[in-house]
Amino acid sequence: MQIIIEYESSWRNSFLDGSNNEPLPKGGRNFIASMTTLKQAGNYKKRDVSKDTVMGILNRLIGEQRKLYQARQDKEYYFSEIEKILKDEDIIDKSTISNEMVYIRNISGSTDQNSFTGMIKANDPAFKSEYSSELWGILWLDVDEVAQFICDEKYQVQTDIELDPISVCGQIELLSAEKAIDAVDSVKDALDILQSKFDDVNYLNAKEQLPLISLYASALYLQIERLSKKYDLSNALTKSGGLSGISKRGFTKKDFMDRYTTGSKKLIWGNPFLLKEKKKGEGEVVSILSKASGQLIINLNISKEQARDLEEKIEDAGVSSFYLGKKGLAYVTDIR
Hints:
Radius of gyration: 30 Å
Shape: elongated
Number of helices: 11
CATH topology of the largest domain: Alpha-Beta Plaits
Largest sheet: 4 strands, antiparallel
CATH architecture of the largest domain: 2-Layer Sandwich
Structural class: alpha+beta
Distance between the termini: 6 Å
Number of domains: 2
CATH class of the largest domain: Alpha Beta
Low-confidence stretches: none
Strand content: 15-25%
Number of strands: 10
Order of helices and strands: EEEHHHEEHHHHHHHEEEEHE
Strand order of the largest sheet: 4-9-1-10
């Protein structure tokens, strides 16, 4: 028996982790096609027509509404014998692949790392208190000065910068964008002090260099410790005694601005399905959505009686069109 299917615009990528062949986890399968998660190894998933795809189609054609793994668990599963004899060479996929830029809707509730909503609390006490210049002024010191501050408890910090959430956030972003530096001379001395003070923090990257933002962020926490001896810093700190959005290693803009705005964190509506990666010998490789159109031929090595019964079930179900894999349009053109 041969079933011939024509299809158009079948998506050949997956945006979720896990598998259709297993029960859904409590919170559902995770969305892995955001701009951040797509960069992680293995999250750009290509999908081709497989035996599972074909079995899903056959079940759909006879009117089965359950997921494939659920249908397979049924003692009266119609295709139990056919599955045993169906081989990869019985599946012929004649497809033409095209690539297309698409915008993927993200309904996972993720928030934008670099955006915020609402009005800015420009006069928040964290920026207008007696200690504010001494605290945030750390961010405007040069590298040698911040190293000197870390090594000398009596070092005085002041700044003439007009302090508010935006000016502080902007300066931290500039520091975050700077390249990592070698830990030598005064920076090495400062790093030794930080490592003894904050022994749970791993400061150096894979190249044994120090990200500049880590030096400044830890200096802020060192200054909090020093200023707490003469000021009440409670209106600048979180319940745990830290700075919102600032750890001893780095900075997250959305968490920082969440404390200093009247709105909530900005939800991500979606993003382009786009992966840029550098490969040795190839340079920058850009991967986007793959779509396939073509013909799928399914050859079933079954008896005439089985073929007639299957064809009858397909006709009775009357399924006119369906998805092949994900999205697109597919329909049966011939049964032989």
